[in-house]
Amino acid sequence: MSFLAPALLAGLLAIAIPIVVHLVQRERRTVVAFPSLMFLRRIPNQSVRRRAIRHWPLLALRILAFALIAIAFARPFLSGSVAPVAATGGTREVVILLDRSASMGYAGHWARAQEAARRVVQGLAPGDRASIVFFAADVEVAARADSGRAALVAAVDRAKPGSGLTRFGPALRAAAGLLDASSASRREIVLVSDFQKSGWDPAQDARLPPGISLTPVSVAEQTTANAAVASMTFVQQPAAKGVLVTASARVMNYAAAPVANREMTLSVDGHRLDSRRVSVGPGTSAIVAFAPFVVGGPRVRVTASLAADDLPADDVFHAVVTAGGRVPVLIVESVNPAPDASLYLARALGVAASPGFDTRVVRADRVLSEDIFAAAVVVLNDTRVPSGGAGHALASAVNAGAGLLVLLGERSDWSSDDPDLLPGRLGAAVDRSGTSGGTLGSIDFSHPVFEIFSVPRSGDLTAARIFRYRTLTVTGRALARFDDGGVAMAERKVGSGSVLAWTSTLDSYWNDVPLKPIFVPLIHQVMRHLGRYVEPRPWYTVGETYDPADAPPADPASRQAGNAAFTAVSPSGRVVEPAAGGGRRTVALTEAGFYEIRDARSSGEPTVVAVNGAIAESDLSPLDPAALTANVVPAGGAARDGGGRIITVEEGEHRQSLWWYLLAVGLLLLVIEAAVASRLPRIA
Question: Which of 286, 436, 482, 602 would you call most buried, defined as having the most Cβ atoms within 10 angstroms of its Cβ?
């Protein structure tokens, strides 16, 4: 026997009440006073006979009544037997959860899963209903309960394993939601899966409501052997005709037996370039290094392939190698610049590797609109704003997404006729050369320009000395101030672009910043931020989303605000409609392989995005279906009725309703006890 509310068994302590009542000594209520004894000391008279239990049947009756009532409130039921009437009577509605994650592509898993789903459909009785639901990390209702059996079988026959992760929690919640509105007397979930251990987290909230049963059907192999290409790394070096790339792949062996002398190949843009042999011990990994190859264009498709085993999906790894990654920078100098006005800045940009910077220096009276539109970042280096068409081009470029760095020296000027780009009003120069110079006093380390200096031993920004600077009344955001409170750096957002103003120069006259170790990394961070540089990802994982707006345009001249229209083609050739939300348009990556993203603004080559399945799907370690059922079925596990169907504890207790009988008997005994107790004095 089991109990639905075992904590209420504490009520059994009430059986002590009759025992205490029978043993308590009661004094006589009628007291007769004798005057001759009034001065004697009172001595209590204890009667052993009064403390003895004289009416054993009455005591047993009272104890039994209290015990039955306490047990009734604990809601008992017999866990070994269930009323069979519910197993055979009434209609039945079934949700067939069919796992089509990547691991279901192993050997015969998928064929057995389809056959199991067909058997459930064919076993439906007249009046029964069923739904087909496919799941991996997401859930797809393929056929609802009002579909005919032919439609249900056709949905199972058409389906194939996907590339997604196994996730049991969302699938069970979705199935319970479909059955929640059902009026059928028997509601059942049939879960067909290989029960991959990585797909279940006991902390998931996936407990089924009362009245919904679960039947697990496992299609897993007793023993499995699988090796997978887990990841790739790329090392780039400058070459005469592009970039020399050395690719390496990591191979994981999830089997108990070693992988011996398995062939691996490397392909670039569909052409096989190299082949190697790899051996991997049980439960370990190995690195395979391929011969270097030259990338002459902006990007290439790279594929590392392992000789196929029983799970071919993880034997291929896709990546996109972007050659270099260069940010075009235009430095605009004054008509009569200082001798070393751009010397330190150009040299700092010249030593950058990832990304590299293509730097060009032009005088303000010779800069053209084409020069500005071709740059991702424009630097006004101690000069006034270019006049004419170049000035208008600068404003247009910044609004469209270009970055602008303004170095404010003695030759800088910003009149009311110039484009409204500066993050404040420019004032006179402050001379601090009579002292040891000023320093940076406050810095906003949350800003991308300074965040790399927020950790210990990353560089001391306060070590530099500032001898002169221009005052700036900030209308934007002050990122740094000098120790006297003057603004050192400020930022302003203009359209889709950013404008940074440094209120001193970057030469050796107004400060010694270029001579400090922090100068080179600081300049690189400034250019990364202004150029909106995003480190190109060589690959994504199935289940992630791709947002073209996260990456800067390849052609700076084609910039425009907002997220432009684009089309996406999946590896299987399916056109994917972007999902719109929050002003952004993204692509859900659901297949492994290469996606092509075509920008509606350009007729050039499409952007290629490599996608791979999650490596967790390669580990085929199984989960015991009984352990999953124990976590899903509420309140202490499950029972099975005469038809073999799993039922919840609440359903089993509700079918038996033993507590009603116990409570009735307990109350009847109390009535009998009252009658017997009222007659005892006359009987005595």
Answer: 482
